[in-house]
Amino acid sequence: MRIGILGYGTVGSGLIDIIDKNKDKKNIEIVSILVRDKSKYEGINHYDKLTTDIEEIFSKNLDVLVEVMGGLYPSLEYIKRALKSKINVVTANKDLLAESGDELLKLAKDNNVSIKFEASVGGGIPVLKPLIESLEGNNINSICAILNGTTNFILSKMYNEGLSYNEALKQAQELGFAEANPDSDVLGYDAARKLSILSTLAYDNRVYWKDLYLEGITNIDEKDIEYAKKLNCKIKLVGQSKYEDNKVSGFVRPVLVGSNSILANIENEFNAVVLNGDSVGEVSFVGKGAGKLATGSAVYGDVMDILNNRISSIDSFTKEKVDVNKVLDENCSALLRFKSNHKDEIFSVLKEKIKNYDILNEDEELAVLVYANSEIEINDILSEIQNKGYCSQVNKLIKIN
Ligand SMILES: NC(=O)C1=CN([C@@H]2O[C@H](COP(=O)(O)OP(=O)(O)OC[C@H]3O[C@@H](n4cnc5c(N)ncnc54)[C@H](OP(=O)(O)O)[C@@H]3O)[C@@H](O)[C@H]2O)C=CC1
Ligand SMILES: N[C@@H](CC=O)C(=O)O
User: Fold this and answer.
1) What ipTM was estimated for this complex?
2) Atom 46 of ligand 1 has which residue's CA nearest to it?
3) CA distances from residue 271 to 139, 219, 252, 364, 366 in whole angstroms, order as listed
4) Element holding 305 (H helix, E strand)
5) Ligand 1 center to residue 66 CA distance, Å?
6) Residue 119 Cβ < 6 Å to ligand 1
């Protein structure tokens, strides 16, 4: 099988290492590799296959085009061109799937070829294939997941080793986990795109990432970590969605999770996806969510599926878009931090409105863990405190079970 590869970075080089390792067993021939700047790659394997000209790639009579260069443009254009030319596509690009999955899957179907994208969610974890194939006998009710390796790495390093946010981000970039623009990781966009892909497939309805409640990790500081430890919790960037009565609720946000929960024990670049199906119950998938060989492994698996004609049809991306509820409409607790000179006034509002709360700090700032009937109730109280001028800046961190 003749494959062309767009990109020889973290994922591209992982894929190429795995193809080379298996070359005696599997009939895959790398015929051309697209990069921007060949001079960066002198001395590497397959240097003679490198090109900066996309026309050369398309001149090679390909069976599969692997897109691992990232971004929306020109990746979208190249993938569409491949599908229209009846070339199968494998991609790790969640930005593209989340934005244009409907168009791309339809184009693949119309041209009788496949587009496969296992690596776009959870890096090396095989989760899309089990979801699409093995769990077909289920209505999936909920997804609770850690879907970004970079932010999980940063939060783990801050919590376990006391690293600063900037030091931890730098390490994640050096290890090849972060996106070309790491804002996509730390602001939560990457995890939201992955959650939208998972939710679309799980609920068989189109869920758009921009409809999810979205909050990144850039406001998490040492004090949050300190309170988390006091509460026997960890802080994780969690993506959660639920499907009930044809409605989806969903968010990506940093949350407190109890130290004994599955998600609390997912460290560094590892990801986890916990699905709940009406037949199977709870199923968990855990593994490396980012990195060269782990992600290369998922891309390689997709290439092998095409080689062996193991293809399943996917219609969910072309289904109707569903409305998404953004607030947590259930009993919840939250860590609230107030920087204020009006502590007594804040306490009197809390006493009047909240069913219960624990004080964590009342010296340099006021920090409380409140227990409420819903997030809406907490938001109403915060609005009252702010409107009365008792505090202009509040930090809120929800705790999930
Ligand atoms: N890193 C990871 O752990 C994971 C990444 N992904 C996804 O995989 C994709 C690739 O990520 P990653 O390998 O980390 O990215 P890198 O930045 O490490 O590599 C990108 C590669 O693509 C090439 N490239 C980028 N833009 C162009 C262009 N316009 N024309 C030609 N070549 C181009 C670069 O060439 P040059 O060096 O010459 O600029 C480089 O070889 C992304 O979609 C990412 O989201 C998915 C899961 C995990
Ligand atoms: N930047 C992403 C890479 C994999 O999708 C992450 O950190 O998870």
Assistant:
1) 0.99
2) 92
3) 23, 21, 14, 35, 33
4) helix 292-307
5) 11
6) yes
Contact by Cβ (8 Å): 261, 154:
no
| Strand pairing category for 115-116 and 140-146 | unpaired
Given a contact cutoff of 8 angstroms between Cβ atoms, the answer to whether 179 and 190 are in contact is yes
Domains of the chain: which residue ranges?
2-120, 136-290, 332-400
CATH no. of 332-400: 3.30.70.120
CA of 148 to the centre of ligand 2 (A): 5
For each of the chain's 401 residues, which pLDDT tens digit applies?
999 999 999 999 999 999 999 998 888 999 999 999 999 999 999 999 999 999 999 999 999 999 999 999 999 999 999 999 999 999 999 999 999 999 999 999 999 999 999 999 999 999 999 999 999 999 999 999 999 999 999 999 999 999 999 999 999 999 999 999 999 999 999 999 999 999 999 999 999 999 999 999 999 999 999 999 999 999 999 999 999 988 899 999 999 999 999 999 999 999 999 999 999 999 999 999 999 999 999 999 999 999 999 988 899 999 988 889 887 777 889 999 999 999 999 999 999 998 799 999 999 899 999 999 889 999 999 999 999 999 988 999 999 97
Give the chain's radius of gyration (CA, Å).
23
- Which atom number of ligand 1 is nearest to the Cα of residue 69? 22
* CATH code for the domain defined by 2-120: 3.40.50.720
Domain 136-290 has CATH 2.40.110.10: no
367 CA distance to ligand 2 middle (Å): 32
Which ligand lies nearest to the CA atom of residue 174 in the structure? 1
**Of the candidates 266, 261, 330, the residue with the CA atom closest to the CA atom of residue 122:** 266
Instruction: From the candidates 94, 116, 194, 399, give the one annotated as an active-site residue.
Output: 194
Residue 296, ligand 1, Cβ within 6 A: no
**Residue 194 bears catalytic tag:** yes
Nearest alpha carbon, ligand 1 atom 25:
69
Distances, alpha carbon 213 to alpha carbons 5, 55, 278, in Å: 35, 41, 25
**Ligand 1 center to residue 303 CA distance, Å?**
18
